[in-house]
Amino acid sequence: MSRRPASSSVRNFSTTPRRFEAGRISQRTPRINVTSRILRHSRQLSSTPAPRHGHLDPPKPGEERTITFIDKDAQHHTFTVSDGDNLLDIAQANDLEMEGACGGSCACSTCHVIVEDEGLYDKMEEPDDDENDMLDLAFGLTETSRLGCQVKMSKELDGLKVRLPNMTRNLQASDFK
Ligand code: FES
Predict the structure, then answer these.
(1) Ligand 1 interacting residues, C-beta cut-off 6 A
(2) Domain 65-170 has CATH 3.10.20.30
(3) Per-residue pLDDT tens over the stretch 113-135
(4) Which of 99, 108, 135, 164 to mutate to test the pocket of ligand 1 (most atoms within 8 A of CB)?
(5) Distance between CA 89 and CA 148 in Å, rounded?
(6) Phi and psi for 113 in degrees, rounded to 5?
(7) 27-31, 49-53, 55-59, 134-138: which is most confident
(8) What is the rounded distance in angstroms from the CA atom of residue 105 to the CA atom of residue 110?
(9) Residue ranges of the domains in the chain?
């Protein structure tokens, strides 16, 4: 039995790209401006400056407030700050050991401070539910504990003294199970 001749459509089928057939077009890689393609398809880079953690503006004359942090070694660190500055920003701007793991969004307790003066503690706004929830998870909780990121300096709090606890707790997902 003779072999069936291939049909013309099959005979003409070729996987060779047309540009390589019969030496019509050279097999050189087509010239593509790769750089311009990448640039065309890549995202624009933003020129927005990165947020500066712990940056504070100096207080206006006559509106200086004083705060003292007492560190784990009982060293006192006193600073002159402005109304509205929160304790986390003040501590970080002055290289004190306050982690502020959540960046001040009331989602950790690594900015825990203990207010030394009960009178000044009573002048602060009450902690809200979120702050109380986080404080419940803080090590060494006291009657005058606060989260530093939630306490803003004001005229009423001038002369505030806070103690940094010996330990803070960086929460894990398992803490919420
Ligand atoms: S920095 Fe996380 S609660 Fe203050």
Answers:
(1) 88, 100-102, 104, 106-108, 110-111, 134, 147, 149
(2) yes
(3) 999 999 999 999 999 999 999 99
(4) 108
(5) 8
(6) -130, 155
(7) 134-138
(8) 11
(9) 15-41, 65-170
